[in-house]
Description:
Layout: H1 2-21, E1 30-31, E2 40-47, E3 50-58, E4 63-66, H2 68-71, E5 78-82, E6 95-99, E7 101-104, E8 118-121, E9 136-137, E10 147-152, E11 167-174, E12 183-188, E13 205-208, E14 215-222, E15 233-237, H3 242-249
Parallel strand pairs: 9-14
Antiparallel strand pairs: 1-11, 2-3, 2-5, 3-4, 4-8, 5-6, 7-8, 10-11, 10-13, 11-12, 12-15, 13-14, 14-15
The structure holds 2-acetamido-2-deoxy-beta-D-glucopyranose.
2-acetamido-2-deoxy-beta-D-glucopyranose is lined by residues 30, 170, 191, 211.
Amino acid sequence: MIHKLLLFLTLATALSLPRKEFRPRIFNGEPASKGQFPWQAALWIPTNTGLKFCGGSLISDTWVLTSANCVGKAFFRIRVLLGTLESTGDDPDQVELHSRLWIIHENFNPWTYENDVAVVRLPEAVVFNDYIQPIALMTEDVDEDSTVTVSGWGAISEDDVISSDLTYSNLTISTSCAGTDSTICAIPDGNSDSQNICLGDIGDALVLNAFTDPVQVGIASSYGTTCNKGGSGIFTSTAFERQWIKRVTDI
Length: 251
Ligand SMILES: *[C@@H]1O[C@H](CO)[C@@H](O)[C@H](O)[C@H]1NC(C)=O
């Protein structure tokens, strides 16, 4: 009995300590739980300079919304993971699909990031369940100072490697960053001064009412050098791109 208790205590200590000491930092985020962000997609994208990782969001049973910058140099096919907390694809509830069709905004400007939006078509309709659900898209401008949430597998430290576990952060809509007409910005909310999107988060959904009535307001587009320094994350406005999305996907 004492033996078992000791083992239990050792295990409990081993399991709880790392979380306290190495608090995940998706940009200083919190670990996501299963089914919390069921629209979240992981995209593994082959390019001529190697395999690239991006996020995306499921907007119907056959389309994933992401950044043009992510799929701009893709070739062959894109590996799409849905229903997973693991970027590496080790989740028993995940669905893995390979897409050969993606559409990039024809007016995407790779220098200014204007119209940084793309859609990836799944080869077959995915079945929705507790871990896989589409997200609604915002059609109106989001108010300044709104609290929004971004989830993703972006780098959680200065190491510049993507995270294996999905994390999320609450941010605040801000007008503090310069951008194009298609851009919205989000800064850390009051709870942390250093959380934001980072390497591997491009394409992730920025979501209003993420925990009650989720609506996607932005697509992670760029973070400059600010990942760990509390600066602005730059997102493409889904309201601004709503008509383009409708035109190419009929959603
Ligand atoms: C994010 O906001 C939600 C809703 O207000 C809250 O429940 C949650 O604790 C917040 N998470 C963090 C990491 O601040």
